[in-house]
Amino acid sequence: MCFRPPSAAKAVKCTSCGMLNPPTLEKCKKCGVDMPKAKDETKEK
Ligand SMILES: [Zn+2]
Q1: Per-residue confidence (pLDDT) for residue 39, from 0 to 100
Q2: Are the beta carbons of 15 and 36 closer than 8 angstroms?
Q3: What is the pLDDT along the chain (45 residues), one digit of tens a residue?
Q4: How far, in Å, is the centroid of ligand 1 from the Cα of 32?
Q5: Which InterPro entries would you find in this protein's record (predicted)?
Q6: Which secondary structure element, helix H or strand E, spans residue 12, and what is its range?
Q7: How far does residue 34's CA lie from ligand 1's centre (Å)?
Q8: Which of 3, 14, 18, 21 has its Cα between 20 and 30 A from that of 29?
């Protein structure tokens, strides 16, 4: 049997280092690069 925490089910792969981060993180916990979001609602500059 495989028990996985719900947070790990939808891990987002860092485009920079390949680290799998939970979707709740805005930045990679390993290299600190901005994580791509599914919804592009942040268009403030
Ligand atoms: Zn990274």
Answers
A1: 59
A2: yes
A3: 777 665 546 888 999 999 999 888 999 999 999 987 755 555 666
A4: 6
A5: Znf_RanBP2_sf (IPR036443)
A6: strand 12-13
A7: 8
A8: 3
Distance of CA 29 to the CA centre of its chain: 9
**Per-residue pLDDT at 1:** 72
pLDDT at residue 38 in the model: 58
16 Cα to the center of ligand 1, angstroms: 5
Distance in Å, CA 10 to ligand 1 centroid:
16
Q: Can you read off the two tokens belonging to residue 40?
A: 């592009």
CATH number of 1-35, picked from 2.30.30, 1.10.30, 3.30.200, 1.10.3470: 2.30.30
CA of 45 to the centre of ligand 1 (A): 23
Residue 28 alpha carbon to ligand 1 centre in Å: 5
